[in-house]
Specification:
21 helices, mainly alpha, single chain, elongated, about 0% strand
Length: about 475
Amino acid sequence: MTRAAPSQPWYRWWQVPIFVIGLGAFLAVLLWPKPKLPGPTELLAQRLKQAWSLEEAGTPDQLLETLQALEPLDAATPEQHAELRFLHGLAFARRAELAEAGTDTAAAAWRRARSELEHAGQLPLPSAHRPRWAFLLAKSQIETGAAPERIAPLLESAAAGMTRDRARALELLAEQHLRRDPPDRLAAARAWERLLMLPQVTDPNEYRYRLAEQLFLLDRLTEARQVATRIPPTAPRGPAAQRLLADCLLRERDYAAAAAVLRELVASAAAHELPRLQYQLGRCCLELRQLDEAERQWRAAAAAHEGSPARFAARVRLGALLVDRDDEAALEMWSSILAEPPPAVWDQPFLMLADVLDAWETTWRSWMQPPLRSRPVGRVGPTLVAARSGARTARSGLAGCGAGGPEARGEWQPRSARRCPYPFPRRRRRLRGSRFPGRRIRVAAAGMELAGRGEFAPGAELPPGRDAPRNVP
């Protein structure tokens, strides 16, 4: 019978844990990840992060110094290269904004910013930077005189993707639409509408006025009036909005409401605005048959300084109004109107040329009516004959006077230096001793000469049927 081998004591097994520990240490050393040194691309990415932090908190000069230290860019990826060019353009744009506007420093910085940003746009710039890049490129193009057709798409892209500068992008977009030839007023109005819907707009009255102005010019009067009424009269744009509201009401022929608005404006308007407002209030009073008030307002507007468009318009309206009220005053008014040289180009904002001709024809017809015909024939008969003869002569003579002479070229010459087509001397010798009818003939001739100049524009032609006053025998 064999005997069992005696068991080993426990202290004889110490080699096992030592072996396990050694094996674990070996495996740990073998499998532990070894530190990897960053390559050029990784180092550039780290420095780009530092540059972005400087862009938010540093100065443009510090940012440019950091970017210059990153050169050369042999190891940069196309995306990193685009990002570097964008940072360069951003730094130069900030330098231009901090410089005094209009100086050579600002102009040079804007040109360099535009060059860098256009270079960045040709590279695969990350999409996160695209809206801001478009906004800065649009600003640099505005400052360097680019065409609005190139700038507007950039601002549309910037306004769609930005949050911080979206209001400014829409404002610039509206301005660029108005810079087009001809101005795109509808697109500008839409930009103002989008701007007014932004929550960060704290004072919308300025933008409301600009929107109402464009709607008025687009002849969308109801919308313009609704926008203008939302501007308080006490706001900085309040008086201008009230004037625009009055223009809308006049265009809509709501003369009672327009008169109410204009009376409030006349009570508080500045001196240089009064003639315009008084003239428009006189128009409303005429339509409302408040003739005394209309005459009073137009006389006040006619007292404005010479060269004021409202002064000329008010005197023309007064000349037509006074025909049935004071014949002598009407004659004096038309004499003073026609004694002044007309402008070389018709730029009257209150009267169309047709309004001037209608006012003159109203006066002419009134002078041809009784009681002028009821005066003694020996004194009045030759006057009517001369007036009729002068009208017929003016019809045939105005074409020769305006075809190639100074009037056709829009030039003004003294009356003595012009070739007058009206053969009045023999008739006037007959009327010696009759002062008032003779003055009437001279004013009539000057009025038809005014009509014969058309719109006072070089080479302008009279509209059909406008070569002489209507209803003249």
